[in-house]
Amino acid sequence: MSARLNILMIHQGAELYGSDRSFVSAVCALRGRYPDATIDIVLPEPGPIIDLLLPYSTQIMFDGRGILRKIEFKVHPWRTLKSMVTAWLEYRRLVRSYDICYVNTVVCVAAIAALRGRRGGAYVHVREIPSALACRVFKAMLRFSRASLIYNSHATAAAFNLPGSVIHNGVDVFSTSATATSRRGRALRLAIIGRINPWKGQQFVLDALRTRGRELSVEVRVVGDVFAGYEDLLVKLQETANACAQHVAIEGFTNDPAAHYAWADFILVPSILPEPFGRVAIESFAAGRPVIASATGGLTEIVTDEVTGFLFKPNDAEDFVCAVERALSMTGVAYQRMAAAARQRYIRSFTVDTYMCAIAEVVCPQVSAAQRLPVTALRREIR
User: Fold this and answer.
1) What's 233's domain CATH number?
2) Which segment of the chain is annotated as a signal peptide (predicted)?
């Protein structure tokens, strides 16, 4: 495009978890597509993500209002609603100045509502599968916004059942895979990497080991932290870890999890609710590590049972233990084959270049009716 574009990109976090890194890749994609554009970014607060955004952004602004945090809404509902309205009014003024507005995740409620009235160039990247009630509320909000939707998986698209494009995440965490070493009689090393959250399954895994899996020869490493206000989750997790027969280490969040992927034999993705995508699974594949994952949501689009990892019924402790037993019973040759298959799956489908090309193709100033994927077509694609 000859005319210089003004692009606004809004994100709900400032750390370096999965959705944060995917946001950085989206910013990079649009900078590559529109090298002369003004790209302004809104974050809730300063954080480690800034260092990755600075090379691609024109300006980074901070506004923590208008983001739906469940615990804040429960404790201070009226104050939260007032803040939402104030943020909505501010975003309505702000979005008028931009040719493209891209909002990352549906919890950026005020920004999404402010997209109403635009004549194109408005996008919401949907990365969540909420509960049934919450999904109805978010669907109504997305319809109201009239924004074009991008989903991170067919599972997420099916949950919302609104027209949109499906773009799987991509990662560039590892240029090469770590060597898959032989166990030689040691315990199987299992790592859970990512935000500590009730539905992410860290507590489920330790409860399963403490009760049904006490005889399993495994060592577990939990890498991640909680949102502010959820510290009780971490306390309970540590108490359960202390009660396990196996050695369980709970590490804090790290910007560079490469050493943890290299340490592990398998990465656990034990989500007890439908996982919208499962970025940790593709990071694991990029590292040449197979996955033991819940057979739910977007994870079933990533992991092939007994080929790139093992799947188990979500929130089923007995089936989880069976999946770990299957991993324990593998020969060295079988494990090497699975690790290689995981790496190849990443190379074929989940590189950051693939993701960025798709984002740059979809996100543009105007979207014609022909570019919108109808619900019926989306349903056929999902099947």
Assistant:
1) 3.40.50.2000
2) none
H helices of the chain, where? 18-33, 49-53, 70-75, 77-95, 109-113, 132-145, 154-160, 202-211, 231-243, 258-263, 279-286, 317-328, 332-349, 352-362, 375-382
- Tokens representing 161 are 């059942």
Mind listing the pLDDT tens digit of every residue in the chain (383 residues)?
447 899 999 999 999 988 999 999 999 999 999 999 999 999 999 999 999 999 999 999 999 999 987 767 676 777 888 889 999 999 999 999 999 999 999 999 999 999 999 889 999 999 999 999 999 999 999 999 999 999 999 999 999 999 999 999 999 866 556 677 777 789 999 999 999 999 999 999 999 999 999 999 999 999 999 988 889 999 999 999 999 999 999 999 998 899 999 999 999 999 999 999 999 999 999 999 999 999 999 999 999 999 999 999 999 999 999 999 999 999 999 999 999 999 999 999 999 999 999 999 999 996 444 444 443 333 223 22
Say whether both 116 and 242 belong to one domain: no
What distance in Å separates the CA atoms of residue 164 and residue 5, rounded to the nearest whole number? 23
Is 181 a member of any domain? no
Q: Are residues 141 and 205 in the same domain?
A: no
Q: How far apart, in whole angstroms, are the C-alpha atoms of residue 259 and residue 178?
A: 9
CA distances, 14 to each of 24, 91, 137, 177, 278 (Å): 11, 19, 25, 28, 20
The amino acid at 188: L
Same domain? 271 vs 332: yes
Does 176 map to a domain? no
Q: Does residue 145 sit in the same domain as residue 280?
A: no
Q: Which domain holds residue 231?
A: 188-349
Residues 197 and 339 in one domain: yes
Total domains, the chain: 2
Could you give the CA distance from residue 215 to residue 256 in angstroms, rounded to a whole number? 32
Asked whether 221 and 191 are in contact (CB, 8 A), the reply is: yes
